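Materials and Methods. Structural model of histidine kinase. The 802-residue sequence of histidine kinase from Aquipseudomonas guryensis was retrieved and submitted for structure prediction as follows.
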Amino acid sequence: MRCIFIWLLCLLPALAGAVEFDETTTRLPLGATMHVFEDMRGDSSIVDVASPALQGSFRQHHQAVLNAGYSRSVFWLRLDLQYSPRNQSGSAHPWYLELAYPPLDHLELYLPDDAGGYRLAQRTGDALPFSSRQIKQNNYLFELDLPPGQSQRIYLRLESQGSMQAPLTLWSPQAYLEYQPKRIYVLGIIYGVLLVMLIYNLFIYLSVRDTSYLYYILYIASFGLYQVSVNGAGIEYFWPDNPWWANAATPFLIGSAAFFGCQFARSFLHTAEHSPWVDRLLLVMMACGALVMALALTASYGVALRMATYLALLFTVVIFSAGMLAWMRGMRVARYFIFAWSAFLVGGITNTLMVLGYLPNLFLTMYASQIGSALEVGLLSLALADRINAMKEERTRILQQASSELEALNRELADNNRLKDEFLATVTHELRTPMNGVIGSLELMQTLKLDVELEQYQKTAAGSARDMMRMVNDILALTELQAGKLYPRREPFSLRGLFDGLRAQYSPRATEKGLEFIVELDDSLPDTLEGDAGKLAQSIGYLLDNAIKFTHQGHVTLRVSAGGPLTANMPLRIEVLDSGIGFSVPAGGSLYQRFRQLDGSMTRQYGGLGIGLAICRQLVDLLGGTLRHQSTPGQGSSFELDVQLNLPVQTREPGGMRRRVGGLPRRRPEQCTVLIVEDNAINQLVTRGMLLKLGYRVRTADNGVEALEMLRSEPIDAVLLDCQMPVMDGFATCRALRALPGCAELPVLAITAHSHSGDRERCLAAGMSDYLAKPVKFVELQTLLHDWVLCQVPADSATQEH
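The predicted structure was written out as tokens:
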């Protein structure tokens, strides 16, 4: 009886503090009504705890939630519950006891038994498989049958290597079921935001390949899985039969989130460029994150979780500080970064204050951390989107700048091309002027009697000079083709005369190499045609030049035939065939590219600039024709040129004095005086020597002004006028000359270095009679003077005849 009395004395104070509730109660927080006993050694059993000797060790808990932090102690919770229904006839009513902290390792529920002691009603925790739970929920949920009108004491034993928290709530079954959709919807929204942001940024990363998005995706994945693990959804849905990973996942995912979050901040904020010391600090944080991940897999759960907690706190502060520093330094995207981490911090602080008991345990405070993290992820996605806009603006600015620079470069290139064309034109003119003296002097040497050795030297020098002049002409032609200065002329010419000239020009070269040069001209073709004979002959000349160059034995054939039926036009087909080395036909038309040779090495056997076929192709295109080729290595090549020529409608003769081609001379050269107007002393000397060889009387003038003075003072039968002169050029001199008395019909023969640039038309427009291209050739000069001077009727004789 004494023992029973003592036990009742100990029990009565506890029973006096029992929590009363009735059938109208839906939710009852128990944090401030429970008693807590901290078993620091952790060896007390339920018999020891329930004994009267330890009842005095229980302390009343006055906070809403038990928060013992990281403690190695075992905590016993004592709850005294009394269900007092208003309807005394009511039967027993089931209740749910919820402990809403899934990361607890071990949890044991003890209920009274029939013998006056306590029995183990439920053992669970995340250190056990999910199947150990009485009710399959992410939080720990126990069903209690409380008899009406009676106080019942229950014990909970809590043990965990992590944080010790025990938010206890008593629910009525109906209220708990009604509460679940609200909680599930909020968690669904939070996880949905994380998943949507992950997929959204994954697609952006696949589109733009910006590594910032990849780090952000990995951060979202790590942080989202951490939330799943902490909320108990991981062990419920993903790893229900793997308690080890259920514990290890939390510190591992915290380390992973810190690792990828720091790398994302480095990439997003460009800390290596703007804040090197912050960048180094983030690198240290990344190393700590990797260390925590390794500890989670190898060390004890308690050590890894403590390290992960410290890392999470330091990570939050460092990331926030990095964002603030970037914002202070004017980075536009840093503001969204700060807003995102501010939402995360506010949510974390709110949840922590609730856990510590400074804020009530409401739905908003309970899930503040998850809500803040969802806002953080969304705002960071906005930051990345703003970064895309900033990148677009920067790209637009760069493109505009590049466009301006490209436009300036194009203008500079156009100016350079123009200057290059002008330079080449000037160079060719300047080269033609001294070459005129060289070639003229060599031709004058032919009129002298030379010994065999000197004659051989003269021939060698003359051949080399002609080759050099040919290259100068090629460069000039290419320059004018590129500049668009050439255009086709339409004037009558003799078809047979054209090909006789080609035979006379190329047959000796072929004969020197031991080749047979054959010209096959269809006799049925008309002789007089209209077109640009000069450009046509120049095009064919390039083909003949190549044929002779690349043929060592055999023949070179020039074949001319009708390219179709004769109508208003004359379709002409010209073929150049050879038995030379041939070539493999290159792809893409590179055969006709300028400065491109099939053998471009320095040791190639055949010389040349590699522009002959390019000029030929452009000249043929200018004439409206087509050029085709066929070749077989070792067997020869064939080039086929088709061009449309016109049949002359009528013979058009210019008014005034006309050239008498092939007429009988009416005067002798020694009866005629020719005035040479040339500023270059060498060219003047050469031309004078040619005229003296021909028997003419010669007068010289250094410029146009001197020439006009001489024309006023003495009779002159013809003028050889250089077009490019200082003081007064040839065109101005000719216009002034025509205004002098008796000079309206005077033969004025222009000498120009630009034989391809339309100087003939300019000469005729300025009133000149005809023109010669430099270098002046002895035979051409003789022929021109014969037709314009010797075959013309003298002015005084014409007067007597009338």
